[in-house]
Write a structure and sequence with these properties.
This is PCDGE protein. With 350 residues, the protein is mainly beta. 1% of the residues lie in helices and 42% in strands. It folds into 4 domains: 9-90, Sandwich (Immunoglobulin-like), CATH 2.60.40.60; 100-197, Sandwich (Immunoglobulin-like); 205-303, Cadherins (Immunoglobulin-like, Sandwich), CATH 2.60.40.60; 309-349, no CATH class. It is rod-shaped.
Length: 350
C-alpha cells in the first residue's frame, strides 16, 4: 500500500473455505486490533461475506514501513473451529520528504595561495525516503559567473573544490548556493560562505605624487621636497608598511597625518658647492613574514644660489715698479674666483 493512499481505501482479502455444511460452515472474521486498519464485510451476490481491509488513517513509511496483521475465520459449529492467516503489509514509499542539509549555512576558510583542485568543503544532505526518492545529487544554484568559474562541485559526494586561483586583493569572500536534489525532484538549499585568507603576496608600492627638483640651495630647512604615496594591498600586518630613506643627503622622511603619505623634507640647508645633486633610495617594507620590500629612487638637483663672494688668490699683492715704466704697461695681474656657478660665479674687477 502506497503511503499516499487516502483513508477509507478498501483492499479485498481472500475468503476462508470450510468443508463442513450448515452452521458448521458459517464463517465470521476477526482482525487483530490495529489503529491503521479495520475489517468490514462485503456481501457477495451469492450471500457469502467477503472480508475487506479498510485503511483508517494516513500512512507514513518513514514512521512505520510495515504491518503484520492476523485474520481469523471462525465457524459456528460446536466445538468452534477457526483458521488464521498472516497479512504482511509493506508501505510503499512516496517522495514526501525533501533532502535536508546538516546545516543551513557552512563556513570555510581558504588561503589565497591555495592551488586549483584544493578541497574547500564537503556538504552533506539526507533524505528520509527510500530508493530513488532518497538518491541525492548535489549542484550549485544560481550564482554570478565570477563565482561559478572559481569553484566546482562533485554531484555524488558533495565535495566542493577550487577551480581557479584566488586573489584576496580582488575578492575577500564568496557565498555559494548549494542544492541537493533527490530522485523525485525535491530540492533543498544551503549556503557556503568561503572566506579568503590573505597571503603576503604583494610588495609595497611607492608612487611619487610630486617632486620639487631642482631645489635652490638656499631653501629653508623643513621645506617639502617630495610627496609620495606608499600602498600595500595586503591586509593586517602584511599591509602595514614602514619606510626608511638611504643615501648621503640632508633629507629626511616623515609620515603625513593620514599615515599613507610620506613626505621628504630638508633636514638642513643644502650646499650646491658640496653636492650638485643627491641620489636617494626610499625603501618601504611590510610587516609580513617574510617581509616584502618596495623601493623607489629619487634624484634631487640642487640649484646654485649666490651665497659665495669672490675670493682673491692672495689677500695682498706687492708690486715693485721702476719709475720709468712706460704708461700702459701691465704692472700685475690679480685673480679672484667664485664658487658659485653661472652669473653668480662670473667675476668682474674694478
Amino acid at each position: 500500500i502506497g503511503e499516499w493512499t487516502l483513508p477509507g481505501a478498501r483492499f479485498p482479502l481472500e475468503m476462508a473455505q470450510d468443508a463442513d455444511s450448515g452452521s458448521n460452515s458459517l464463517l465470521t472474521y476477526q482482525l487483530t486490533s490495529n489503529p491503521f486498519f479495520s475489517l468490514v464485510m462485503k456481501e457477495s451476490p451469492d450471500g457469502s461475506n467477503q472480508p475487506e481491509l479498510v485503511l483508517e488513517r494516513g500512512l507514513d513509511r518513514e514512521k512505520e514501513s510495515s504491518f503484520v496483521l492476523v485474520l481469523a475465520a471462525v465457524d459456528a459449529g460446536d466445538p468452534v473451529r477457526s483458521g488464521t492467516v498472516s497479512i504482511r503489509i509493506n508501505v510503499t514509499d512516496a517522495n514526501d520528504n525533501p533532502p535536508v542539509f546538516g546545516q543551513d549555512q557552512y563556513r570555510a576558510r581558504l588561503s589565497e595561495d591555495a592551488a586549483p583542485g584544493s578541497r574547500v568543503l564537503n556538504v552533506s544532505a539526507s533524505d528520509a525516503d527510500t530508493g530513488n526518492n532518497a538518491r541525492i545529487t548535489y549542484g550549485f544554484g544560481k550564482m554570478p559567473a565570477k563565482v561559478l568559474q572559481k569553484f566546482m562541485m562533485d554531484a555524488e559526494s558533495g565535495m566542493i573544490t577550487l577551480k581557479e586561483a584566488l586573489d584576496f586583493e580582488d575578492t575577500r569572500g564568496y557565498t555559494l548556493r548549494v542544492e541537493a536534489r533527490d530522485g523525485g525532484g525535491l530540492v533543498a538549499q544551503c549556503k557556503v560562505a568561503v572566506e579568503v585568507l590573505d597571503v603576503n603576496d604583494n610588495a609595497p608600492e611607492i608612487t611619487l605624487l610630486s617632486l620639487s627638483s631642482p631645489v635652490p640651495e638656499d631653501t629653508p630647512a623643513g621645506t617639502v621636497v617630495a610627496v609620495l604615496n606608499v600602498n600595500d594591498p595586503d591586509s593586517g600586518e602584511n599591509g602595514q608598511v614602514s619606510c626608511e630613506l638611504s643615501g648621503e643627503a640632508p633629507l629626511s622622511i616623515v609620515a603625513s597625518s593620514g599615515g599613507s603619505y610620506k613626505v621628504l623634507v630638508l633636514a638642513k640647508a643644502l650646499d650646491r658647492e658640496e653636492a650638485a645633486f643627491h641620489e636617494l633610495v626610499l625603501r618601504a617594507s611590510d610587516g609580513g613574514d617574510p617581509a616584502r620590500t618596495g623601493t623607489a629612487r629619487i634624484r634631487v638637483t640642487v640649484v646654485d644660489a649666490n651665497d659665495n663672494a669672490p675670493v682673491f688668490s692672495q689677500e695682498e699683492y706687492t708690486v715693485r715698479v721702476p719709475e720709468d715704466v712706460p704708461v700702459g704697461s701691465v704692472l700685475v695681474t690679480v685673480t679672484a674666483t667664485d664658487a658659485d656657478e653661472g652669473p653668480n660665479g662670473h667675476v668682474k674687477y674694478s
